[in-house]
Amino acid sequence: VKEAAARLMDGEQATVALQYHPTEGYLPLRQMLATQMQDLGVPCTAENILITSGSQQSIDLLGKVLINPGDKVIVEKPTFLGFLQAWGIYGADFVSVETDDDGIIPESLAAALQQGIKAIYLIPNFQNPTGVTISAKRRAAVVALADQYGVPLLEDDPYGRLRYEGDALPPLMAYDVRHVSAGGDGPLSEGNVVYLGSFSKTFCPGIRIAWACGPTEIIKLMTQAKQGSDLHTSTFGQMLTYEVARDGFIDVHVARLIKAYRARRDLMLHLMDKHFPENVSWTHPKGGLFLWVRLPEELDAQEVFQTAIKRNVAFVPGQSFFPDGGGKNTLRLNFSNAYPELIEEGILRLAEVLSEIVAPVS
Amino acid sequence: VKEAAARLMDGEQATVALQYHPTEGYLPLRQMLATQMQDLGVPCTAENILITSGSQQSIDLLGKVLINPGDKVIVEKPTFLGFLQAWGIYGADFVSVETDDDGIIPESLAAALQQGIKAIYLIPNFQNPTGVTISAKRRAAVVALADQYGVPLLEDDPYGRLRYEGDALPPLMAYDVRHVSAGGDGPLSEGNVVYLGSFSKTFCPGIRIAWACGPTEIIKLMTQAKQGSDLHTSTFGQMLTYEVARDGFIDVHVARLIKAYRARRDLMLHLMDKHFPENVSWTHPKGGLFLWVRLPEELDAQEVFQTAIKRNVAFVPGQSFFPDGGGKNTLRLNFSNAYPELIEEGILRLAEVLSEIVAPVS
Q1: DSSP characters over B103-167
Q2: Which of B206, B230, B235 is the closest to A19 by Cβ?
Q3: Does the pTM of the predicted model rise above 0.90?
Q4: Do B19 and A205 touch (CB under 8 A)?
């Protein structure tokens, strides 16, 4: 970052980096991202890309553009808290759809779509909070259903590049057959999917650079909304991110992250297998940051949290990820953000707490 | 900026700068701004400061928090376009109040307040678009009226430090007697005014760092809204701005800007005096970036623009600054953003166009 900032400030574009900029974002960065999206199977151009201040802002702008109070919005059960907060402000009425280890269940989605739905929000890869990935077969089914009902589908994909095993799946956006049939080299003008990508997990979250990729019409509406929201994302931050990305640093960095996070995930899963009580279960994520723990039905993760925190180990109780209630006996663990020694210490302490509660000393 | 970025990345806080951050903003920056606000006569603490991504975002967050469709909002006639765009999205119904060379007219404001008003938006110093400043006497009157009617008052002050003549006036927020009577050293908990400050005109606009200063309750609501909007403003951008500001660079830079912009203003005013037709009038701003031109009533600045643009000289026709219509014969000039040679060339060409239109060759 230091070197990139120095190059930027020494270069011809130094004054551009400190000035006002068009709302759409820095064109070379948008072009780079359009090429990346093409590589993922999405035929698009820079016109389909809007740079935003984190994907949280893409979510907010889409809420501003799409949602009126009372509009029904489908989410995975459970789903990302930041989405519920952002769209809750716009008065969205959330409809949670059941998921399993292959992601959202198409039959349940089809049933929910009959309620008159305004939008669908999905995290296809290594979901927050569950760590689950939507299978290839279900991706096709989900996109076909959005198409059949003509419902906008938000594909939030901050974790997709952090895969520790198995092959990458195309984004939902690549499954929209109308893109393929559209042909031509111009910008993408049709489709239901808006893809949200981010540098927060592949580079750093503190500079707040993300992007939305969608059909031109929705990108234009988001751009208008963004103009009123904050004029544009930091020019300096965009150009710095481009400077860091264009020499291949992010690819190198992601390879490093994958190695480190995979080891941490494996360690955490291994320790959980070894030390957690038998009637506690959890997901085995193939990537991302999170795994999801299910305690016996009668337990309340909030109460477990109170006990755990006294031994200086914390987690996120799962209840707040369920807008319709439920999930009292669930919790989220993050395997990516602690060093192995701390993971070991934390899981051992948590196992102790769980063992006492789940199978108390008789 | 290059040096500040290098210091930041070499320092102990380098990883903090690249990480997620609390929504409220970087504490040392908030503390520095609270001290600045105290120096302006506003008794506040860092708890009264929220860092935002440009003042445009402060405006947006306040709209999100305060405005429901149909709510009446008082603005100066004319007013800042970015405000109309941002609050227009939330369905605000704008009520324009007359202004003269001393700013908004208190008697007209008092009359408008009887309509049931949700908020007042004012730019007290070197207003955009007119360049006019609200006098000390009127500041006291305006704040007293907001207090009497219990209406939130947004004080948007991006230009206040760019003063080229006369003494600085306290911000509207300093006139709120309840602040003075509150006493104590804690955060400000009462008052109607929310002050919006920005680094965009004193440092640079491209990094998008601004702040809102207000009573704790409204700052908390804005912080909640910001969390849903973009989590937080770039940590890197905030820390970089702090790094640039804390060694006094911005004070030095502002002194330089004042010298340069004053000369440009004087040059533009001098050339207009000399070359513009007699029945065209304009404001004489004591600071800021803009001056405001009034053509004879029967002229349409849009049409003048079409002629001027053919000679490669542009300006902003005034009509869009009037939400209730009117202002056809007005236009905004920016004296700050062109080198003297270009100001000379531009004003001469514009004078030519105006002379042909206002007093056509017989």
Answers
A1: EE-HHHHHHHHTTT-SEEEE--SS-TTT-----HHHHHHHHHHHHHHT--EEEE-SSTT-B-SSP
A2: B206
A3: yes
A4: yes
